[in-house]
Write a structure and sequence with these properties.
With 422 residues, the protein is an alpha+beta fold. It folds into two domains: 288 residues, 3-Layer(aba) Sandwich (Aminopeptidase), CATH 3.40.630.10; 128 residues, Alpha-Beta Plaits, CATH 3.30.70. The protein has ten helices and 19 strands. The strands form six sheets. Strands 1-2-6-3-7-18 form a six-stranded mixed beta sheet, sandwiched between helices. Strands 11-13-9-16 form a four-stranded antiparallel beta sheet, with helices on one face. A three-stranded antiparallel beta sheet has the order 4-5-19. The model has no long low-confidence stretch (mean pLDDT 96). Keywords: Aminotransferase, Cobalt, Hydrolase, Metal-binding, Transferase, Zinc. This is Diaminopimelate aminotransferase. Belongs to the peptidase M20A family. Its cofactor is Zn(2+); Co(2+). It comes from Thermococcus eurythermalis.
Length: 422
């Protein structure tokens, strides 16, 4: 088997230039969620289907989650099957990557190239989505392509899943697939999600925190800033609430678990919005969002209950009747919620297989741990299917001048092939 793995690794090396070309072509196509005002993943999915149309996959399926906001009204996901040595009876390995990327952010901070005009420089491919998740997407493709070129059937059927809507909650991606096509998944499947890791590829994620994205809307009464007594400044109420919520959550949910990095729950105020467009307007509305990543030992319902109780206290502190209306009002909207499932067993087959592959190919011992959450793996764990998150990354995701290191892409493809072969 080591001889076969060596042949496949050598073939992957030969495909290096083609891998770079494919990554460049995919980066050129913005695949940003309608949640951010863009068209979604349709064009990128079509490009990927064009790239693989002549590849000898045994089966390629397209699943379109309906979303009227997106181009052609759909959010596509592609499953490409390469059967193992026992055909459809072979054990199965899923490798899941995502088509969507986050918006480019402040364009002035992109100093190497524009976000969707990829550049190859110093052994790296620059552009939005290059590392997150283009690097691993291309690595998974060419792990299989190398076996195809050599006429090798792996021990395990490889299912390459290229899925929409990872960046904004998976409602139109993995979650939709599992709700609408449960027949696709088996309890004895092995799952790799190459969407997290470290720069030497020695971290295997087996656990995630719960996720709660909580939007808070405060309603007051807009007024000229020189006459605050005639209205109610929603901004002041929101500041009061945000400060005390931040302190409350950190104090009450402050335990540590060294399995995770960071080892404690995190509660980060992220987005802020109010309609005042002049310095002399005291706004009547204010919105803020908290991104909460909560250790699995805590219950998200309790976190929400604490926020609601605090809201009542803040409302009472600022209570005022304006034009017959009792203010302020404080409302909540849960933008995303994922309750942490049971971790993948560190002694499960997929963990041991990945550790063995890294020993054989890199001579390194990989450790297991947990992260803040937000990957496809959590959805598989909820079904009782063991899943790991692993990749070799410089951790450039969501940053300006995002890049993928070409060596990481090539070397990870070898590890992915090993998971199918060993």
């Amino acid at each position: 088997m080591s001889e076969v793995l060596e042949k496949v690794s050598q073939e992957i090396e030969k495909l290096r230039d083609e891998m770079v070309k494919t990554l460049v072509e995919l980066i050129k196509i913005p695949a940003i969620s309608p949640d951010y005002g863009y068209e979604g993943e349709y064009d990128k999915a079509q490009k990927l289907l064009e790239i693989i149309k002549d590849w000898p996959f045994d089966k390629v399926e397209v699943y379109n989650a309906p979303d009227e906001r997106a181009k052609n009204g759909v959010r596509p996901s592609i499953l490409a099957y390469y059967y193992g040595e026992k055909g459809e009876e072979s054990p199965r390995l899923w490798i899941l990557t995502h088509l969507d990327v986050v918006p480019p952010g402040d364009l002035s901070k992109w100093t190497v190239t524009e976000p969707f005009k990829p550049v190859v420089k110093d052994g790296k491919v620059y552009g939005r989505g290059s590392e997150d998740n283009g690097q691993s997407l291309v690595a998974s493709l060419y792990a299989v392509r190398a076996m195809m070129n050599l006429g090798i059937r792996p021990k395990r059927t490889v299912i390459l899943a290229f899925v929409s809507d990872e960046e904004t909650g998976s409602k139109y991606g993995v979650e939709w697939l599992m709700k609408n096509h449960p027949e696709l998944f088996r309890k004895d499947d092995l799952v790799l999600v190459p969407d997290g890791g470290n720069e030497d590829g020695t971290f295997i994620e087996v656990a995630e925190k719960s996720i709660l994205w909580l939007k808070v809307r405060v309603k007051g009464k807009q007024v000229h800033a020189s006459m605050p007594d005639k209205g109610l400044n929603a901004h002041r109420v929101a500041l009061d609430f945000a400060y005390h919520l931040d302190r409350l959550l950190h104090e009450k949910y402050g335990e540590r678990d060294e399995l995770f990095d960071p080892p404690e729950s995190t509660f980060e105020p992220t987005m802020v919005k109010n309609p005042a467009d002049s310095p002399n307007i005291a706004p009547g509305e204010h919105e803020l969002v908290f991104d909460c990543r909560v250790l699995p030992r805590y219950n998200l319902d309790e976190v929400l209950a604490d926020a609601e109780k605090l809201a009542e206290e803040v409302k009472e502190r600022h209570r005022k009747e304006v034009d017959g209306e009792v203010l302020p009002e404080i409302e909540f909207e849960v933008l995303q919620r994922v309750d942490a499932p049971e971790p993948t067993d560190p002694n499960s087959e997929i963990v041991k297989l990945l550790q063995e592959a890294l020993r054989k190919l890199r001579g390194k011992e990989a450790k297991v741990g947990g992260i803040g959450g937000g990957t496809f793996a959590a959805y598989f764990r909820k079904l009782g299917i063991p899943a790991v998150v692993w990749a070799t990354l410089d951790e450039m995701a969501h940053q300006p001048n995002e890049y993928a290191k070409i060596d990481n892409m090539v070397e990870d493809a070898k590890v992915m092939a090993a998971l199918a072969l060993l």
